[in-house]
Amino acid sequence: QKEVExxxxxxxxxxxxxxxxxxxxSDRGSQSFFWYRQYSGKSPELIMSIYSNGDKEDGRFxxxxxxxxxxxxxxxxxxxPSDSATYLCAVNLFSGGYNKLIFGAGTxxxxxx
Amino acid sequence: xxxxxxxxxYKVAKRxxxxxxxxxxxxxxxxxxxxxxxxxxxxxxxxxxxSDAQRDKSGRPSGRFSAERPEKSVSTxxxxxxxxxxxxxxxxxxxxxxxLGFSEQYFGPGTRLTxx
Lengths: 113, 116
Description:
The complex is a heterodimer of chains A (113) and B (116). Chain A has 113 residues and is mainly β.
């Protein structure tokens, strides 16, 4: 079982719709969870971080965390074509003596006009 | 303020040679992490380099990969005896926290390494 799992997609949504991206993780000890957006040929850009159970909203983005279910999600409201990118879920893992981010493979989102 | 920068942006190396990739962190950030990103395997962490006050501490070398901290805000990833499988994008991420913390990490633009 991979440490962080995401559906690779592509997830295709019409402009203006809600895009829902999901991620599960295996280490119950993880305490920090992040969503990064990566455009083709670019580096990952941090868009959301969440540390406690529940929802966290920032503009059109809402991150949801459920530690009991080991599940974290990202909702994008009023999706725009510019949101088309790969979304990486990252979870912290303490291993080998230091804290590191473990990434999922990413979900490719395509927002069509 | 200035973000994380990396150089060179592109590097071609002959198999078996050593390479060094540079990362300049965000001012005040303590830890620089190195990741390798490939299409097939996604992103994986390689090592880290930490510097606070006058201490320098780098993560255990991972085989042929090691990080050094020649200056407080600079980390160098060294790859020894490059292999064709090392062809990837190498990303540096800067964090305000120590490697024991859980702070957000901010990525540089990456260096695309091609081993021929």
